[in-house]
# Entry
Amino acid sequence: MRSFEDSYRHKGMRAQLVKLLKEKGITDERVLTAISNIPRHYFMDSAFDKIAYEDRAFPIAADQTISQPYTVAYQSQLLDIKPYEKVLEIGTGSGYQAIVLGELQAMVYTIERQKKLFDEHRKFVLRGKYPNIKYFYGDGFEGLPTYGPFDKVIITAAAPFIPPKLIQQMKVGARMVIPVGEGNVQRMLRLTKLADGTTREEVFENFSFVPMLEGKNN
Ligand code: SAH
# Structure
């Protein structure tokens, strides 16, 4: 069962989490504000109320995970979202990262390959609050050619390689934040698309994500 009550106790735990994220090096105030505004416990069973505000990943349906708050904050900070930017997210999962982007006033297009997670999201209580987020069931390797080009692209699963179709769907000057690598550890990369269609690459910390898989799963 999930509970949709945001008490002072929850708000207190959230303030502690934001403090921890600052200590770990997250400096973008807009990202920190977004995290302090979103009741992360709404995304999990009410039995895990407290765990919702610990800085750790957590299992959700279909053997997937809600990313660790630090990871969500880190990727959001690297994206440097401006209001009204078009952002493509691969791997909706719990929808938490999408809603952080929604709080940052982006126009969010998020894709999930697991039908069960996609369907669960239809009835999610916070969904109506963010008309700026659109949800799609599909294969993230294909992107959303009819909705692009995008200003920002975020991949929230471990990519075995940089998906070429997603580079095509970026505007010149657009950024992609993507954890690349197979196995247990991925390297966070930030790519900027140049006028000649190639990309400039910056390399950041290591993270651990569930794999980005090809095709849809129903
Ligand atoms: N952003 C999520 C993190 C979810 S974990 C959150 O905030 O909770 C990664 C998700 O990526 C999983 O739900 C997985 O099913 C999904 N995924 C993996 N490969 C994918 C693909 N090719 N296309 C779309 N989603 C994919």
